[in-house]
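Entry 14. Ran structure prediction on the chain below.
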Amino acid sequence: MNAWVARRSLDVKIAFAVTASAVLLAAAFASQTFAQSAAPYPGTVNLATKHSFDVLVERVEQAIAANKMGLVAQASASRGASSRGVKIPGNAVLEVFRNDYAVRMLAASVPAGIEAPLRIYVTENADRTASVTYRKPTAVFAPYGSKALDEMARELDPIFERIVRGAAGAG
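Output, structure tokens:
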């Protein structure tokens, strides 16, 4: 009887290990596929441009100002890496908002404050051109289920579209 219990226990352990391995493999594949997607979230807009990375970043900065929004912060892993002597394709996250929208957002939903500032992402392509990606404000704020946030986001959608399309040279 002990041999049977030991064998059964081994069978269960093997079955568990095989199942766990399959789950981990599937998760890794799904994660890889998800990570490579240009638009993993609803409402994500991606525009390829003819501009170089540095030129596109500058154009986005100018378009933010032209549309009376504020460039709250900017982060760039590629510039940080370059300062350490490491070369990676250009990327920059430009964080954009304005205080009157921040006040309205927080009046509608304090938890929604984590979403501000909204982000515009510029990435360098293999052919040395650059792309610009952002999530529509209506998509960012939709999960909060607030009419006031939805109204504010509908006002922000065309502003962000003008910023990105203007910077990209697409209208």
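Helices lie at 2-36, 53-66, 77-83, 99-108, 137-141, 147-168. Will compare against last week's run tomorrow.
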